[in-house]
Every structure is written in structure tokens, then in C-alpha cells.
Amino acid sequence: MYCRGIRGATTVEHNKREAILAATTELLQLLIAKNELRPEDIASAIFTVTDDLNAEFPALAARYLGWTEVALICTREIPVPGSLGMCIRILLHVNTARSAAEIEHVYIKGAINLRPTFAARS
């Protein structure tokens, strides 16, 4: 077993609680499915949001998915001029037998532009 980092990002159109939770849930579900994760595999998760998002903590979506024993934290992205706004990023630390090359990072919606090679594929 190794501890690996899995990254993902998404965007929302509005700074609304429901939008933040729905987008975060969608991203987490994709990360879970593509990497065959169980809550007990996840050591911790760091959620970041851009300065224009403050209607809800994105980590709440993980709690709603049953991640009650996972260490979660939310923080702000560095406000670099010209960077992508309305963005939620996630860094999962997971225990897995997968190699680093086998990890599937997921970027969806407007965040595809951040890492086109990691754009979610159906």
C-alpha cells in the first residue's frame, strides 16, 4: 500500500450553497468511481475554493457521502490575477495499491482548462 495524492477540480456558475455542494459531490463521485475508492481508503482531503466562493464549505459534500472518519479541511486558493474563478479544487490523500501512473485525476466543467490532460472522460 502507498499513500497517493489524487487531484480534481470543478467550477460553479453561482456562489450558492446548493451549487457548491452539487459540484463538489459530482467531482467526488467521479474521483471515487475512477479510482475505485472506499471511505476507509481515504486518509484526508483538502478542499480549496477561490475568493469568489463562500456560500458553503465544500467538505460538507464529503460528509454527506459518509466520510465521517476522514480528516477534511477547506482553505482559500491563492488569488493570482487572471486565474480561474468560481473554482473548487480537491486533493485526496488515499491509501492504495495503485501506482502513481494508475491514479486518475479528474478535472471537469471550467476546470478542464487547468489540466486538459486530466479532463474527465466517459
Which key features would you list for this structure?
alpha/beta
Written overview of the protein:
Helix content is about 20%, strand content about 30%. It has about 120 residues and is α/β, with parallel strands linked by helices. The protein has one domain: RutC-like (60s Ribosomal Protein L30, Chain: A), CATH 3.30.1330. The protein has a 5-stranded mixed beta sheet with strand order 3-2-4-1-5, covered by helices on one side. The N and C termini lie far apart (about 30 Å).
Give the distance, in angstroms, between the N- and C-terminal Cα atoms. Answer: 28 Å
Q: Note the overall shape.
A: globular
User: Helix fraction?
Assistant: 10-25%
Total tally of structural domains: 1
Task: Report low-confidence residues grouped into runs of 5 or more.
Answer: none
Radius of gyration: 14 Å
What's the average pLDDT? 95
**What pattern of helices and strands is seen along the backbone?**
EHEHEEE
By CATH, the superfamily comes out as: RutC-like
Number of strands: 5
Order of neighbouring strands in the sheet with most strands? 3-2-4-1-5
Instruction: Return the CATH class.
Output: Alpha Beta
Largest sheet: 5 strands, mixed
